[in-house]
Amino acid sequence: QVQLVESGGGLVQPGGSLRLTCAASGSIFLIDNMGWYCQAPGKQRELVAIITSGDRTTYAESVKGRFTISRDNAKNTVYLQMNSLKPEDTAVYYCLADVIEHSGRRRNWWGKGTLVTVSS
Predict the structure, then answer these.
(1) pLDDT over 70 percentage in the chain
(2) 61-79 burial, b if ≥16 CB within 10 A, otherwise e?
């Protein structure tokens, strides 16, 4: 079993910043891709950013230049620095980890999500 726990969400004014953290624990041999997705009310879950084990990053067009994804492999943790936040960034943010377990099994694990609300 693997657990992903997100933190750092909350209420912030437009133009403000938040830093999300997702820590993975459990039967982890190696984590390949790690990423952040968001789901706004009434919408489908969509990609925000992904970082590979080699630190290559991909961002949704809507967050380029404002959000930065990073990771600490020693801590099995991924971060999302969110700057210049807009009301349209309001959503539940979910962490995803592509985990290779000690058993050799490989599968994606999701966190339970953390709510980000951007409002004045």
Answers:
(1) 100
(2) eebeeebbbebeeeebbbb
